Amino acid sequence: MKSLLRPVFESIKPAFGSSFLYKRFGENFSNPNDSVWHYHPELEIVYVNRSGGQRQIGSHLSHYKHGDLVLIGSNLPHCGFAGKLKEGQRETVIQWNNDVFGKTFFDVPEMRNVKVLFEKALNGIIFHEEDKRKIGAKIEAMEHLNNYQRMLALLEVFGLMAASENYTILNAGGFLLETKVEDQQRINLVFNFVKENFNEEISLDNISHYINMTASSFCKYFKKITGKTFVQFLTEYRLVYAAKLLYESNMGISEICYESGFNNYSHFTKKFKEHFKKTPLNYRNEIKVAISNTIEHSVY
To answer: Keywords assigned by UniProt (predicted)?
Structure first.
């Protein structure tokens, strides 16, 4: 079993002449933070065009297949998104601290909805369908603007997000890390440990020992912070990883089962169907159809 990793604080440094960070990545880019659990006081927008990947924001775990647009609140721990980008795929990241706008900027009536948006973002927000594409296009177009124009465009992106009704709160039950620094450090240790060891056996005694708690105290603590039991979180992590392999690899489903940390194929398929509302085979077949349709539309 691998050693326990320390949580990572990411220092955000905007480019000279800009008060926020804008980064655009194209094909063959491999995200160094794809497997690193990290946090920062800056808010963050991530737009992934076309690519699929594994998403973990707070205690929310999921797999996306056709691009992603998320808004991540201050100090909400998360991981990288698309990983290695393929031909025609892009990822754009915007990170900023609200202090650059001044302490009362978002208190004016015109910005009230944006302030509410940022409060919701403390639990993470994912945008869907047409709103995702419309806002994503605006974000990508910022690459060719000067710093002044980018600032105006960023405010417009805030407005579009605040006006959207097509979104999901990722940690709907709340995520309590912003309340105590010691909780943030401790739960980050747990999440990093799961990321490093999810495909091996992890017992409650094992993980609670690593953070110097009894098993019963750890179970209560983890449920209080994340809204999930540790067993539920570990199972979801394994299922999301399995979905990622179904999308990205040609591995057999039984091989994916064991590669994802399950030791019983029947149990794996049962849990997968409960979580994704379809069998692993149906999940993979739907991906093939979606990819085929995308290729067909691009040809015609």
So the answer is: DNA-binding, Transcription, Transcription regulation
On the CB side of 255, CA atoms within 13 Å amount to 6
Q: What angle do CA 49, 51, 52 make, to 5 degrees?
A: 130
Q: Are 131 and 167 in contact (CB under 8 A)?
A: yes
Q: What CA–CA distance (Å, rounded) separates 111 from 116?
A: 9
Tens digit of pLDDT per residue, the chain (300 long)?
655 455 567 788 888 889 999 999 886 655 555 556 788 889 999 999 987 778 888 888 888 877 899 999 998 888 865 556 777 788 899 999 999 999 899 999 999 999 999 999 999 999 998 999 999 999 999 999 999 999 999 999 999 999 999 999 988 666 655 545 667 778 888 888 898 899 999 999 999 998 899 999 999 999 988 888 999 999 999 999 999 899 888 999 999 999 999 999 999 999 999 999 999 999 999 877 665 554 444 433
DSSP secondary structure code for residue 11 in this structure = P
Are 65 and 128 in contact by the 8 Å Cβ rule? The answer is: no
- Give the pair of three-digit tokens for residue 178: 């912003």
Tell me which amino acid residue 233 is. Answer: F
Cβ(174)–Cβ(168) below 8 Å: no
Structural domains in the chain plus CATH codes: 8-169 (2.60.120.10), 198-287 (1.10.10.60)
Q: Which helix (H) or strand (E) holds 63?
A: strand 60-64
Strands (E), 138-253: 167-169
CA dist 91 → 60, 287, 288 (Å): 21, 21, 23
